[in-house]
Amino acid sequence: MSVALQLGIIVGYLLLALVIGLVAYRLTDRTAEDFYLASRTVGTIVLLFTTFATLLSAFTFFAGPNVAYQQGPEWVLVMGLMDGIIFAILWYVIGYKQWLLGRKYGYVTLGEMLGERFGSRRLRGLVAGISLLWLFPYVMLQQVGAGTALQALTDGTVPYAVGAGLITAFMILYVVVAGFRGIAWTDTLQGAFMLVATWIALLWVLAAVGGPGAATAALEAEAAHHLALGSDFYTVQWMLSTAITIGFGVAMFPQVNQRFFAAGSKTVLKRSFALWPILCVLLFVPSFLLGAWARGLDVAIPAGENVLPVVLAEYTPVWFAALVIAGAMAAMMSSSDSMLLSGSSYFTRDLYRPYVDRDVSERREDLLARVGVVVFATAAFLGSLLQPATLFELGDAAFSGFAQLALPVLVALYWRKTTRTGITAGIVASQAFYLSALFTAVPGTYAGWSAGLVGMGLGLVVTVGVSVVTTPAADERRAIYFDGLGAD
Amino acid sequence: MARLALWGWIAVAIGLSALTIPWFLWGDGTVVAGVPLWLWWHVGWMGVASLVFWLFARHAWGLGIETGEDASGGDTSGGTSSSASADAGGERR
To answer: ipTM, 2 decimals?
Structure first.
């Protein structure tokens, strides 16, 4: 019953998404800018929810509650700081400036924006290459997750490879047809749905166990130390390292960073900025409290299972649990399709166009972008079948990997004296350091602070230091980030 | 004046980030209405953050970023825009 229902709901959702995609397709101009950014026309609610759904989705519903279950509800604080505050501030500091520059000069990708300022095709390719290095395994992880979930859901009737393959095929179809506009619309639907569903789930469970007081008392009886702020797991260094690296990493993730270019107007950016912390706390509190409280409830969580589905299965009707699980799986896909689209744009605009064919027409670039999606998704699918250990490690570390880009980019955006050599050295040094910490004997923590955070500091110091001692190249356009920037 | 506004807002941003996690309640397990006190602080703080962001968007948006001549007119906060351009001037070479 529940399996058929869940599959039915998932298929129903996919069909609904496809219809939305087709509507979006009819509205689309056949240009790359429209395919990638909906021609920079996105409104407040859609921008807010598409960023929200892209950013949080799978992690919020599966991994996050698991952390809260095992280690306590402090996870709400870490996520609140990283996404609700740090990312919101970057939304202005990086996002608004990028949006102005994108509008003025037509940038679609981060690499393009940096490459033009520093007169460097190599820098442009470097930023795109590094981004794809982290993005590719992360997309692969989503496919692994979807394949595993479908297999578990159907008790093996849909084997892993078939599940992952079906999801990949659907995503390709959907992204190629719908483009950014369609993705943003389904994200909005999904984000709003999951927000409401999580609250209903929380109220349902609380009603069953006798309110928050009873739930907390049960948690106290089971694991009293979870209620006090901080623990051996939640140390000050760990909480800050995690919040800062992921917060900055998010802003450099291609699918999030590209959304900075997509806003329709300054007002859209302002409203989304002010609503962001509230939206984050509204989702994090119910989602992670459910995970934390589950620890005290009489629910046995089988090893390797996610907490939230088990709790829902125990306390809510089958159809409701199925709806939420299907929504969470769909959310996993919505992150992936945005990543596919952005990955393809980084590839076509920053690698193919500058290095292979400079004079590609608008129409042809649009076609190329869609081909890029197919290639990227298929390659990630093959990766998800072979599952090389290196790709797993890269995917798990993707946020910190992207965080290494953030400070050199910030310096370039706000300090005129940044030189091409400086920013290139800063990016290369911090990436090299962080990759060494992942794969070699270079330590992963420094007095409790993570290598990701230390690498960010290194990137900052190298970018500034090298810029001070080098002179700008003749073809750098030092003024374009500063002169005549404004919007009405 | 523009410098002051810029540094003031930077201080506000740092302050907002610094107290999102109530460090002063470290190790405290007081429960109020079924939820740890430190979580109530966090929820309230996020509300405060939204309010502060809204105030910033209304009165100081563009600070430290907008520099162009076209930034001064048209927007609700003309005063801030001009201060932003003055500020960027200070950073020029």
So the answer is: 0.90
